[in-house]
Amino acid sequence: MRFILSFLALLAAGSASAERLTLDRLYSDPSLTGAGVRSLKVSPDGARVTFLRGREDNQFQLDLWEFNMKDKTTRRLVDSKVLVPEENLSDAEKARRERERTASLKGIISYSWSPDGKQLLVPLAGNLYLVDLAKPDQARLVASGNVIDPKISPKGKYVSFVRDQNLFVIDLATGKERQLTTDGKGTVHNGEAEFVAQEEMGQRTGYYWAPDDSAIAYRSYDEAQVPIARRFEIYADRTDVVEQRYPAAGDKNAVVGLHIVSPVTGEIRNIDLGPEKDIYLVRADWTPTAKALVFQRQTRDQKKLELISVDVASLAQKVLVTETAKTWTTINDDLRFLASGKGFIWSSERDGYNHLYLFDMNGKVLHPISKGAWGIDSLLAVDEKSGKVYVSSNKDAVIDKQVYALNIDGSNADKPKRITDKDGWHEASFSRNGELFVDTWSDPANPPQVSIRRPDGAMVTWLERNEVNESHPYYKYKSDHLPTEYGTMKAKDGQTMYWSMIKPYKFDASKKYPVYLSTYGGPHAQHVSRKWGDMFDQYMAQQGYVVFRMDNRGSSRRERVFTDAIYRNLGKVEVEDQLTGVEWLGKQSYVDPKRVGVYGWSYGGFMALRLLSQGSDKIAAGVSGAPVTDWGLYDTHYTEQFMDKPSENVEGYKQSNVFYHVDGLKSKLLLIHGMADDNVLFTNTTKMIDALVNRGVQFELMTYPGAKHGVANRLQRKHVQTAIDAFFRKHLKPESN
User: Fold this and answer.
1) Would you say 295 and 309 are in contact if contact means Cβ atoms under 8 Å apart?
2) How many CB atoms sit inside 10 A of residue 262's CB?
3) If you placed Cys at 184, which of 16, 174, 190, 539 could pair as Cys (CB 3.0 to 4.6 Å)?
4) Which of 392, 677, 678, 731 is an active site residue?
């Protein structure tokens, strides 16, 4: 479950003409973060860096920009409002954006380069445009009609896309459009990933081009056997009855298939996924020669993950890698085939940490590329010429993300060379040849700064300096920006947990302050990190709260013994750990232990309810947003990964659900949910309402018409944060500063 960790990271730094933050300003333009950029890409020829940037009058309306490496100039390539003045998105595109957590954005939210670096493919409002860099103001419409997931083929001969549940290609030489699949309708989809694959497996596409343009491998799925969740989407002026195919824990999943189709003839061949049909198809890819297709198959119980190679000519198969675990196997995107044909790189947690290994083409491990009591986050680039791979990791500090270089031959496996220098958080995007990377760095005092660097970390030039000077939107708030402190404490089993704290405005150690505890607590996420943070945290500290976060056991970017502690009983150790943090806070001389409040959204909403139910003697008030209250209501892949099927773990499901503990909920509660949530279904909250009413528990409730899981509408977001602020102000009474 890739839950929403916070509503909006509108961020912070420092100033001279001091002003305090207000909620109105947090949700106004321009963004307090400054000139933020996203979707950074180095062009195939290395001549340009392209990116998406919000407009000054609307930070959520994105345009396409470029930075020219030769003359060091920046220009807007495509103005989204000129190309399409008013967007009307299909339901399929809205759902896709909800899965990608981009539902709040408008304009251009994705794009791709042609292999020659001369054109860009830009989807916008269901249409598809080709942009020639020589004349970007003359974008050419190449396809229309609810187009999703468009791509330029690796050799540049075709444009491909999905429309109305079928796969299409356009021959760019002739302009002729060809429909490659025809059975996509009703419950059958081609070239798309099913709901749980999008939501839980990070599947952003359902088809994969061969590197020589000779074929496309594509997924299909039929969700006819998936139970229908009949739910209401309540809007301000209407109520829609939606019949959503939603596989809750223990239910049947969609039946998936894998196929190869020729873009020239349309011939389709089917890949055998094995005798067991109740499996997950989690990834697919091609070898550099296009002679073999590889796919990753995961068992329903997720304890086994296989990498399988298919000979394209004969369709003969062989298993290259098998990963097993007593708890669950982790999906990754770190498969890279060496262009030399000598093998492939694969990441594995087989020794308890996520490390890279070099395999030969028959699946034999040649040697580890990385090793030791640390793990990699992701494989960023492979430079065979220099014999190096580049990875991101928190090797030097758990709360940081840095870029490191490793030798493919494994000679520095336990001593990678750190490439990025500043402590804090680095997001890196490498060019295809590994000769450049774009580094986006921030820390709690500095908003994201974007530079272009050589693979040894040497600076080439700034793309976006983003200094908080007199012209920066945050400048007037700079002098009141409050620092973030970091520390550690021990869980009951002795494991180290990391915390962060922002002390209140005009902090006086002789006073006692209320606590705003922000929690997420679930897997696949790290809540404590040394980067430019959530501006609402900064706002709450300025209102007089001690703002506290802690990553309990189960949180991500840690060793498996740390993450596996949650297995088969969600909430147990997470609540134990957070209450350990609350008890520690209560011992600090500047904390009022009777005025502790907790907030969380999604998994964090679940955590807030569990904490109030089991710690009402320590926590005075809590806000629970879009919570899972019954794990039997959440989807198969996520829930069963940690809990197994309900029939196989009856006691675990009982104890993990909020209702098993709710009799202990005595503290003040604000419950929040979007009324059209298709991820954590609104039923979770209606069941909670019923349970509280039946127990005579008074609580506050705020629901948002038409809102999905992320509550993407800016006015609704502002309303949510205003409600949270007012709730804690009423029940915790922060110091008046």
Assistant:
1) no
2) 15
3) 190
4) 677
Nearest-5° angle of CA 683, CA 688, CA 692? 150
**DSSP letter at 327?**
S
Residues whose CB falls within 8 Å of the CB of residue 71, separated by 6 or more in sequence, listed in order: none
How wide is the angle at C-alpha 443 spanned by C-alphas 438 and 444, nearest 5°? 150
Query: What's the full length of the chain, in residues?
Result: 737
602: annotated active-site residue: yes
Q: What is the amino acid identity at position 351?
A: D
3-state helix, strand, coil in the chain (%, to 5): 20, 35, 45
Identify whether the C-beta of residue 193 lies closer than 8 Å to the C-beta of residue 280: no
Percent of the residues in the chain that have a pLDDT greater than 70, as a whole number: 97
677 is catalytic: yes
Provide the whole-model pTM.
Answer: 0.93
Number of Cβ within a 10 Å radius of residue 230: 10
CA 57 to chain centre: 26
Pick the CATH number of 35-152 from 3.60.15.10, 2.120.10.60, 3.40.720.10, 2.70.150.10: 2.120.10.60
Q: Which residues lie below 8 Å from residue 512, measured CB to CB, with a gap of 6+?
A: 589, 590, 591, 592
Q: How many CB atoms lie within 10 A of CB 186?
A: 10
Q: Decide if 709 is catalytic.
A: yes
Q: What tens digit of pLDDT does each residue of 58-117 get?
A: 888 999 999 999 999 999 999 999 888 877 777 777 776 776 767 778 899 899 999 999
Cα 14 to Cα 11, 29, 446, 468, 476: the distances in Å are 11, 18, 8, 7, 8
Residue that is written with structure tokens 């220009």 in the block: 75
Domain 165-222+250-331 has CATH 2.40.50.140: no
Q: CB atoms < 10 A from the CB of 726, how many?
A: 12
Q: Residue 148 has which token pair?
A: 């999703």
Does residue 455 have a cis peptide bond before it, meaning omega lies within 30 degrees of 0?
no
Question: CB of 706 within 8 A of CB of 52?
Answer: no
3 state SS for 541-591: HHCCCEEEEECCCCCCCCCHHHHHHHCCCCCHHHHHHHHHHHHHHHCCCCE
**Orientation angle between helical segments 603-615 and 572-586, nearest 10 degrees:** 60
List the structure tokens of 12: 């912070």
CATH of 482-732, one of 3.30.230.10, 3.40.50.11540, 3.40.50.970, 3.40.50.1820: 3.40.50.1820
Catalytic residue among 80, 114, 429, 602: 602
pLDDT digits (tens, 9 = 90+) for 432-455: 878 899 999 999 999 999 999 999
List strand residue ranges (DSSP E) for 494-534, in order: 496-502, 513-518
Of the residues 259, 355, 709, 731, only one is catalytic, namely: 709
What the block records as the tokens of 257 is 């298939």
